[in-house]
Prior knowledge:
7% of the residues are buried. It contains two helices and four strands; from the N terminus they run βααβββ. Helix 1 (18-29) packs antiparallel against helix 2 (34-51). A hairpin with a 5-residue loop joins strand 3 (69-77) and strand 4 (83-88). Helices cover 34% and strands 34% of the residues. The two termini are 16 Å apart. Strands 1-2-3-4 form a four-stranded antiparallel sheet, with no helix packed on it. The protein has one domain (2-88). The site of zinc ion (ZN) has 8 residues, from loops.
Amino acid sequence: xxxxxxxxxxxxxxxxxxxxxxxxxxxxxxxxxxxxxxxxxxxxxxxxxxxxxxxxxxxxxxxxxxxxxxxxxxxxxxxxxxxxxxxxx
Length: 89
Ligand SMILES: [Zn+2]
């Protein structure tokens, strides 16, 4: 399975508006689970209005021919230059 996506970069500086502070506080109060992820998605949505979707992600994962799980992940921010890459094994 592989995918290419764009998302909000967690390393780009953003203005911490009241709306974002509230959304982060709300997310921190919820237990892990559906609501927690929805709350985090709302935080990302609010940040995306300021920052845009600048973090390009590519990943490939699954069990390969010899029965070993394989993960290949790469991301790079077009705005701040943050970059991360990992390959297992
Ligand atoms: Zn960035």
